[in-house]
Specification:
Strand 8 and strand 9 form a beta hairpin. Strands 24, 25, 27, 28, 31 and 32 form a 6-stranded mixed β-sheet that branches. Strands 10, 11, 13, 14 and 15 form a 5-stranded antiparallel β-sheet that branches. This protein is mainly beta and about 425 residues long. Helices cover about 5% and strands about 40% of the residues.
Length: about 425
């Protein structure tokens, strides 16, 4: 009985399919005669279709099929055109149109194949082929001219977050920019302007222009007591090149970008010299070169240091921080000198003494007998100056009177030291 009922239902469907207007509809065909135009920044698409479906669907995409396109709108089945304003995007898009009917057994989706047409934007495209030729005085910029661009705006900047250093609107490339001062820019931005306004997607190019030299400030030539002239200056933060130091217009040093001082160890003694600091880059020298004068003494002066005081048994460190240094200098120490640095005997290294040939003399386990005036002598045969003598007093107090030999401990040696002094008598 079930088989007979199904067969009867199939027969009814088959008979109804021959009744006009009751046959199931297939999917609609693709629209025909698609055309497009861009009028006053508005995209207009039109098409033809034999009947009036339920609606037409409009898509836009970059590919050749509707599967990857984006839905834009749906219009009534009696419509044969669609319009939308461009959004400033200069991309060439494909527009797709397809008809939609009510789903049927033969067309479950209710939509048919799409017709496609490409639309060129009226928006000026992003400039391409940007080139730059830079020099120490500026730069020249080129790019590919577009027929859709009415004009261009070019700006050069230090960074995207700062106002333009230079900006100009032109009809066609190239653009010549002249650096009137300051460091060279690092970025160029070019906007295209079309009939629909300014393209919001500019061309950008990082710049690597030759560096401009910037002179330092505050050049000071200081007279010293160490047979030299110290030249110092304040670098310009924009300067990335080096420095040349001149004495009386004679080059005496070439230094890097991080330099801020130079010691002239060959300064003529007892003569006033003029020192000039010149900032330079691959673009040449800075326009201004500040200068100052200085004079080196004909010989090292006598320098007195404050007394060094240590207790017996401690380590005494006699250091002269201001002693001249560098190649060509030799050092020696004397002990028992007068307050004027004269006399005394040479100090040599032993089990307690070290550093006798350096600016720092170290005496381990100091004794009261070490309490004397010490002198550091510095000499340089390569310089026109003489020697420098620095007097350093050392104080080692006697803590206990019974510690006669000043060793810091009491014992038989103290007895012998006392007897020796007793028999020696007074001078």
């Amino acid at each position: 009985m079930r088989i007979l009922l199904l067969s009867a239902a199939a027969a009814v469907v088959s008979l109804l399919s021959f009744v006009p207007g009751l046959r199931a509809q297939p999917c609609p065909p693709a629209p025909t005669d698609l055309s497009s135009a861009v009028v006053t920044c508005q995209v207009q698409i039109s098409w033809n279709f034999a009947t009036n479906p339920v609606a037409f669907q409009i898509y836009r995409g970059l590919g050749s099929t509707i599967a990857s396109a984006t839905f834009l709108a749906e219009v009534g089945g009696s419509e044969r055109d669609f319009a939308r304003f461009q959004d400033g995007d200069p991309t060439n898009y494909n527009y797709f149109v397809r008809a939609r009917i009510a789903p049927t057994a033969e067309c479950p989706s209710g939509v048919g194949p799409a017709a496609v047409i490409g639309v060129e934007p009226s928006q000026a495209p992003t400039p391409t082929g940007v080139q730059v030729i830079g020099s120490c005085t500026g730069a020249t910029f080129w790019w590919d001219d577009s027929p859709f661009a009415l004009s261009y705006t070019l700006a050069v900047l230090y960074s995207p977050d700062e106002p333009p250093l230079f900006q100009i609107e032109v009809v066609d490339p190239p653009v010549v920019w002249t650096n009137t001062g300051g460091p060279p820019p690092t970025l160029v931005v070019i906007h295209a302007h079309g009939s629909c306004g300014t393209n919001p997607y500019p061309a950008e190019l990082q710049l690597d222009l030759p560096p401009t030299p910037f002179a330092p400030t505050g050049v000071v030539a200081s007279d010293t007591l160490t047979c030299r002239v110290d030249i110092t200056w304040t670098p310009n933060p924009w300067h990335t090149g080096g420095y040349r130091v001149y004495r009386n217009d004679t080059l005496i040093a070439t230094l890097g970008a991080m330099a801020s001082s130079h010691a002239d160890l060959a300064a003529p003694p007892d003569q006033v010299s003029t020192y000039r600091v010149v900032a330079f880059t691959t673009c040449g020298d800075a326009a201004q070169s500040p200068e100052d004068t200085g004079m080196a003494p004909s010989s090292f002066a006598l320098v007195s240091e404050l007394p060094r005081r240590v207790l017996p048994g401690q380590t005494a460190v006699l250091a002269v921080p201001g002693a001249p240094g560098g190649s060509g200098f030799t050092y020696s120490w004397r002990r028992g000198v007068g307050i004027n640095g004269a006399g005394g005997t040479p100090v040599t290294n032993d089990s307690r003494v070290s550093g006798s040939d350096t600016p720092t003399l170290t005496i381990a386990a100091a004794k009261p007998t070490d309490a004397e005036f010490y002198a550091l002598d510095v000499f340089s045969a390569s310089l026109p100056c003489g020697s420098q003598t620095t007097v350093v007093p050392l104080v080692v107090p006697t803590v206990c009177a019974a510690d006669f030999d000043g060793s810091g401990t009491l014992g038989v040696p103290d007895i012998f030291a006392f007897l020796s002094a007793w028999f020696a008598g007074c001078p």
